[in-house]
Design a protein that fits this description.
The protein has 12 helices and 11 strands. With about 400 residues, the protein is an alpha/beta fold. The chain starts with a strand and ends with a helix.
Length: about 400
């Protein structure tokens, strides 16, 4: 058994919308396909991986360092103890050969894309959906048949306005979502309070609406936002301040009445350890939102969840960022608190399979082998199939 080819490409995620910190007019994404000499249903097994939004493509790191290391390695050194499947841990170690510790940025996204593809391969070779593989390997076989999900939306758009925001939120509710998320911090507090009030006309209860400042605020401004929003009892206040300013998070946690959510912009187990040790977050209230495609992939994500569990954090306090099916599989297989999805934005990557049904804010993970990204027809036909066809 061996890897026969690893292909990568850069795709566009451009959009005129913005959050409080960046616009997405030039956003790109790395997509990876790992092809095996294993045959299933008359075709070679191919695993797919890609990053989520908010970070750029990493073609240079993939082509110049990571892919050559894997293709030049002894194929047997990448297999598990049975010799009948790939070993994600050994592959991770191979990719990180001669990489210094620390500096968990661009490299983490490149590794994450390949690691995602490797797990897709592993589950496809076993001919099982990824969430069941994860459940058996890391959760004593336990999994959730349905997962709480929420749409990431409510971006700032130059032509949408309050009426457009209301229409967007109503569309989510009509589609079966109960919890929704919107952006704040990109205007004045007064403007954002109007946007929150507009969204609440649809969400109805504060617990059905989360807000996300994308780390754009300083501590004083974040405190002012928290005070102004306290009346609404919102689901959470996401990334109020810089993700590495643990002292600021600790100060926020002392006074913020609503839950705080963070971690999508932390990319390693070491960064997770520092956040949990020094960020002052409340284990019974706040949310950890690591992105499994950005933090060195699902392998590192699983390690983070287990480390946090050893430090008193229940798995239900994790909600993967990223808006893709990878987060859905991890949430189901590890029995996390839910996951984000992007039904309208960052297409064709965002959202779930074409036939997915959202009911009362819950989604059943796909039963297709692996990640099931092939169940997203536009993603498969527009991006993935052309990559493997060359």
């Amino acid at each position: 058994m061996r890897i026969t080819a690893i292909r990568e490409t850069t795709t566009s995620l451009s959009s005129p919308m913005r959050n409080a910190f960046i616009d997405f007019s030039g956003m790109t994404n790395s997509v990876v396909a790992v092809e095996m000499d294993v045959i299933r249903d008359g075709r070679p097994v191919v695993g797919f991986g890609f990053n989520s939004n908010g970070r750029y493509a990493q073609g240079g790191v993939l082509r110049e360092r990571l892919i050559p290391r894997l293709l030049e390695a002894d194929p047997q050194s990448l297999l598990d103890a049975t010799g009948h499947n790939l070993d994600p841990a050994r592959i991770q170690a191979c990719m990180m050969t001669n990489e210094k510790p620390g500096g968990h940025g661009e490299r983490a996204f490149a590794v994450g894309a390949i690691d995602m593809a490797i797990w897709d391969v592993v589950a496809k070779i076993e001919e099982r959906p990824l969430y069941r593989v994860i459940a058996d390997r890391f959760n004593n076989g336990n999994y959730d048949a349905k997962v709480p999900v929420y749409p990431g939306g409510g971006y700032y758009d130059p032509v949408k306005g309050l009426d457009g925001l209301r229409t967007e939120m109503q569309g989510y509710r009509d589609s079966g979502y109960t919890l929704m998320k919107m952006k704040i911090g990109g205007g004045s507090i007064d403007e954002d309070m109007l946007r929150i009030q507009t969204a609440l006309e649809v969400a109805r209860d504060g617990e059905n609406l989360a807000v996300d400042a994308n780390a754009a605020l300083d501590l004083d401004t974040a405190m002012n936002y928290a005070s102004a929003m306290a009346q609404y009892d919102l689901a959470w206040f996401e990334e109020p301040v810089d993700p590495l300013d643990y002292e600021a998070y600790s100060e926020m946690a002392k006074v913020c009445t609503m839950p705080i959510a963070t971690a999508e912009n932390l990319y390693s187990r070491g960064d997770a350890l520092n956040l949990i040790r020094h960020g002052g977050l409340r284990r019974d209230k706040d949310w950890l939102q690591f992105d499994p495609s950005l933090c060195y992939g699902p392998s590192e994500f699983i390690s983070i969840v287990r480390m946090a569990e050893g430090m008193g954090w229940a798995t239900r306090r994790h909600g993967p960022h990223g808006g893709q099916q990878l987060g859905l599989h991890l949430a189901a297989g590890l029995q996390l608190g839910g996951t984000e999805t992007y039904p309208l934005v960052f297409q064709p990557f965002g959202g779930f399979g074409d036939e997915t049904v959202i009911e009362n804010g819950l989604v059943q993970p796909p039963e297709a082998p692996g990640l099931g990204v092939e169940t997203k027809s536009k993603l498969y036909n527009m991006v993935l199939k052309p990559l493997i066809d060359g």
